[in-house]
Design brief:
The chain is α+β, with helices and mostly antiparallel strands and about 240 residues long. The protein has one domain: Sandwich (Jelly Rolls). The protein is built from 6 helices and 11 strands. The longest helix has 20 residues. The structure holds N-oxalylglycine and manganese (II) ion. N-oxalylglycine binds next to β10 and β11.
């Protein structure tokens, strides 16, 4: 069989034809899954809900960690109030917590992802966000967290709050939704605590509550902070 002779036209079209490049490979998760406009939404509405923030395998591993911590009695009852006057108050807040320390690959993946968020938010919206603190939170059935603002008191350096949910197959009737309120106390959003969803909101301006849950409810709560510049000694003792 004779191959057709290569005509000059063919060569030309072959050179200009689009090359097929494999889609995939090295594009990182943040590039392929980052929704448009999350920073704009935060700036305008003070709130953004981001679905499928991490791959399901990472979410599963993080959920397994919380329940392993529960079973090993490594969770502590959460407290409320400022440093120095913190106390437990089950009527206000019923979760059990454990601070993340980066001990597992899943925690490292989560923390690395949050750090990308921190850098972008710091560049575009909240200059000087320099640190993130995160804890697992597990609410037993029958518990809740009453309406509050994360950084209401003077001297609180939290500026961006993030809650990442770890619960599979959450249904409306399970309760435990994150309720968001306006400044008059009217509920304006109700968010299901579904595995893979990250909710971001401004720590100083968004009143919110965890409605009573009927199932075990697992999450990671994080806060990004600015430096405490309230007095020279306050910042000095960090170093
Ligand atoms: C908090 C909080 C919300 C949630 O820990 O401060 O408001 O949905 N958590 O778990
Ligand atoms: Mn809160």
């Amino acid at each position: 069989m004779n191959l057709p002779a290569l005509s000059p036209e063919w060569l030309e079209s072959a050179e200009t034809a689009p090359t097929l490049v494999p889609v995939v490979a090295d594009s990182s998760l943040s590039e392929c899954c980052e929704p448009d406009g999350w920073l704009d939404a935060l700036a305008n509405e003070h709130l953004f809900v981001w679905s499928d923030f991490l791959p399901p395998e990472t979410v599963d591993a993080l959920r397994d960690e919380v329940y392993a911590l529960r079973d090993a009695a490594q969770l502590a009852q959460a407290r409320i109030g400022r440093a120095g006057e913190r106390h437990r108050d089950r009527a206000t807040r019923g979760d059990w917590i454990h601070w993340l320390d980066g001990a597992s690959p899943a925690q490292q993946a989560f923390m690395a992802r949050l750090d990308e968020i921190r850098l972008q938010a710091s560049r575009a919206l909240i200059p000087g966000l320099f640190e993130t603190e995160s804890h697992f939170a597990l609410y037993p059935p029958g518990t809740h967290y009453a309406r509050h603002v994360d950084a209401f008191q003077a001297g609180n350096c939290r500026r961006l709050s993030l809650v990442f949910y770890l619960n599979r197959h959450w249904r409306e009737r399970d309760g435990g939704q994150l309720a968001i309120y306006d400044n008059e106390g009217r509920e304006i959003h109700r968010i299901q605590p579904r595995a893979g969803t990250l909710v971001l909101f401004l720590s100083q301006t968004v009143p919110h509550a965890v409605l009573p849950t009927r199932r075990w409810r697992a999450s990671i709560a994080s806060w990004m902070r600015i430096r405490d510049l309230s007095g020279p000694l306050a910042s000095l003792n960090r170093f």
